[in-house]
Amino acid sequence: MDELRQHIRRYCQISDAELSAMAPYFSLQTFRKRELLLKEEERCDRMFFVEKGCVCVFFTKDNGQEQVVDFAIEQWWTTDFGAFLSHSKSRLGIKAVEPCTVLVLTRTSKDKLLRDFPQMEQYFRTIAEKAYSAAQHRIRLLYELSREQAYFYFRDKFPEFVQRVPQYLLASFLGFTPEYLSEIRKRAFLKRV
Amino acid sequence: MDELRQHIRRYCQISDAELSAMAPYFSLQTFRKRELLLKEEERCDRMFFVEKGCVCVFFTKDNGQEQVVDFAIEQWWTTDFGAFLSHSKSRLGIKAVEPCTVLVLTRTSKDKLLRDFPQMEQYFRTIAEKAYSAAQHRIRLLYELSREQAYFYFRDKFPEFVQRVPQYLLASFLGFTPEYLSEIRKRAFLKRV
I want to staple A82 with a disulfide (CB 3.0 to 4.6 A). Which of A66, A139, B133, B183 is the partner? Predict the structure, then answer.
């Protein structure tokens, strides 16, 4: 739970003893590359904190293709939050992009954790506010940038991330075909030479 | 503060006396139609709770046109959350679509409110989680639906809202010209007749 301990400490004051007492509320799970953490249409009763690795969040389009809408790497929480909050079936799937170590927090455990450690309200408030502010900015970018501009934006803003994820997933996230992404990268490379 | 009292009560347990004691943390402001609650590039140190009316959230594009990215009506909080959290300049403007009554909560007041009434952590956690889950779903829709499908989605899901906001703002939000929106509506009407 090292990554999570660090993450909690960043946003709320909590003792070592309390952090240790919280451990049983989380379960540590590992996933192989391409393994599903959450299936579409499955009842969504858990949140995932990435300790190690990278996952993608996607939905299956009418033509059967998977459309990537988000990623999560170390120290990110992810799930279908709407389904999690409303106790309903997930409209999103989550898949390991790399071998992953993940802390799973079920809704029941989260409720109990917040009752037993009310100071965790501040932690979950802060991460939800940060997630919402990132999503609000992303919605603005979806209006503002062409797909090609979005590629350059992500490449310049998150260079390590763009290197890290497989290109076909990055292409899907940006709304490209993999071929078109490779063309843009070639053009950008030639411009620099 | 009636709308806010109801809203807080929905998400956390709090007494009448406590609610009354919170009143001084908020300031009530009214805005005329088209008046700005928040300017782009202005330092963003406040959140807005709509008591009565409707506002739109926008940014100015390179060509000078205002692009609407969101709306907020009664019982919604709004601001540029990224700028609010990072104490920076707003990348979004907020404008009254109708005459509005708004409760303003500055960052300083919010911090003090959370120190003095820690049970409000649960309220702000819950509204941030709900806002994030709505944004996550909206990002999915931006990938999934054509602009025309998005119009029908919003019309069927939020019929009163689609009736309430001026059509040129709805068109901007959906990424249309007002003329194209009127064409879609006409076609849809003719199909029903």
Answer: B133
**H-state helical runs in chain A:** 2-11, 16-22, 81-86, 107-116, 120-144, 147-157, 159-164, 167-174, 178-192
Per-residue pLDDT tens over the stretch A91-149: 999 999 999 999 999 999 999 999 999 999 999 999 999 999 999 999 999 999 998 99
Q: Which of B118, B128, B137 sits opposite A129 (nearest CB)?
A: B128
A86-106 burial code (b ≥16 CB/10 A, e <16): eeeebbbbbbbbbebbbbebe
Could you tell me the strand order of the sheet in which B55-60 lies? B36-38, B93-96, B55-60, B66-72
Residue A60 has pLDDT above 90, yes or no: yes
- Residue B39 is given by DSSP the state -
Contact A69 B128 (CB under 8 A): no
Task: Please give the residue of chain B at the shortest CA–CA distance from A90.
Answer: B137
Mean residue pLDDT of chain A comes to: 94
Q: What would the mean pLDDT of B114-137 be, rounded to a whole number?
A: 97
* H or E, element range at B163: helix B159-164
Q: How many Cβ atoms are within 10 Å of B145's Cβ, its own excluded?
A: 15
Check CB contact of B162 with chain A, cutoff 8 Å.
no
Q: Which residue of B has its CA nearest to A114?
A: B122
Q: Is the pLDDT of residue A165 over 80?
A: yes
- Measured in angstroms, the CA of A172 and the nearest CA of chain B are apart by 10
CA count, 13 A, side-chain hemisphere, B111: 7
Residue B177 is predicted with a pLDDT of 86
**What is the DSSP secondary structure assignment for residue A24, as one 8-state letter?**
G
Does the beta carbon of A87 lie under 8 angstroms from any beta carbon of chain B? Answer: no
Q: Cβ B135–A139 below 8 Å, yes or no? A: yes
CB B135, CB A136: distance < 8 Å? yes
A85 touches chain B (CB under 8 A): yes
Q: With contact defined as beta carbons under 8 Å apart, do B81 and A132 qualify?
A: yes
**pLDDT score recorded for residue A61:** 94
Q: Does A141 touch chain B (CB under 8 A)?
A: no
Min Cα separation B100/chain A (Å): 23
